[in-house]
Design a protein that fits this description.
three-stranded antiparallel sheet, single chain, two-stranded antiparallel sheet, 26% helix, 268 residues, paralog of FGE (formylglycine-generating enzyme)
């Protein structure tokens, strides 16, 4: 009897171990893992880098086809029905209609003209969230071979060259942009992207509800406070985000999803 009880106990431990292993969060195929680490943001104390935890990031920005599926299932986010509190008049204005993309919005091109509220709603419906500014900037330092190419003048020059180009009338497919060593495509060279705390740098107090704004932060002299004055590309991104409001829609502003690394994907 003691032998049988011991066998049962060992079997129970084995099964519990198998169950625990099976419950480990899997990385969805459309996402890549970004290892965390110390990160020095563009503005802040040079001697106090922030710690970014590992997270998952969509390999590609959300496309027109994917957002079309979303508005079909959630009609309140269709162009003619969305509240102006959550999206400006130009919301999805390049689409032919509520449920028609048209020639200006190829299915495989990144969706643009969507507000922060709309992007957040889309990602919530898919069990994801917007990346934080620190997460996005940490991931965006990578190139095809390195996790951090932010001190490479050639890397920064390519980004600035794209920033200086006019927006094409029809955006290319998300698959056409550069892919980093993690398999994440289009962090640069495709569209600007929403982040969860897009206007974080405009808040000068410790709390997010502090109404005092640092209006001079992005004036010409504001660059003197940057932790890396050579990284003008990052400076431009922070300046662009500071100009946004949650219901704004921009013709070259899209988004992609993120998720905490330890969070398992939602069950179908």
């Amino acid at each position: 009897m003691k032998t049988a009880a011991l066998i049962l106990a060992l079997a129970s431990c084995f099964l519990r171990g198998e169950e625990a292993a099976g419950n480990l969060p899997a990385i969805p195929p459309e996402m890549a893992r970004v290892e965390g680490g110390d990160y020095l943001p563009m503005f802040g104390d040079r001697d106090q880098p922030r710690s970014v935890a590992p997270f998952l990031l969509d390999r590609r920005p959300v496309t027109n086809a994917q957002f079309l599926d979303f508005v079909r299932e959630h009609p309140k986010w269709q162009r003619s029905k969305v509240s102006r509190l959550f999206a400006a008049e130009s919301y999805l204005s390049h689409w032919r209609g509520d449920l028609e993309l048209g020639a200006s919005a190829p299915p495989d091109a990144p969706v643009v003209g969507v507000s922060w509220f709309a992007a957040r709603a889309y990602l919530k419906a898919h069990g994801k969230r917007l990346p934080t500014e620190d997460e996005w900037e940490l991931a965006a330092r990578a190139d095809a071979t390195r996790a951090d190419a932010s001190t490479d003048p050639a890397f920064l020059a390519r980004i600035l060259a794209w920033y200086g180009k006019p927006n094409p009338p029809v955006l290319p497919a998300v698959t056409t942009a550069e892919t980093d060593f993690r398999g994440v495509t289009g962090m640069h060279g495709l569209v600007w992207e929403w982040v969860r705390d897009f206007n974080n740098q405009m808040v000068t107090g410790a709390a997010r509800n502090d109404a005092s704004l640092d209006r001079a932060l992005f004036c010409a002299g504001g660059a003197l406070n940057a932790t890396d004055a050579a990284n003008y590309a990052a400076f431009m991104r922070y300046a662009f985000r500071s100009s946004l409001e949650g219901n704004f829609t921009v013709t070259n502003l899209g988004f992609r999803g993120a998720r905490d690394a330890e969070t398992a994907p939602p069950k179908p």
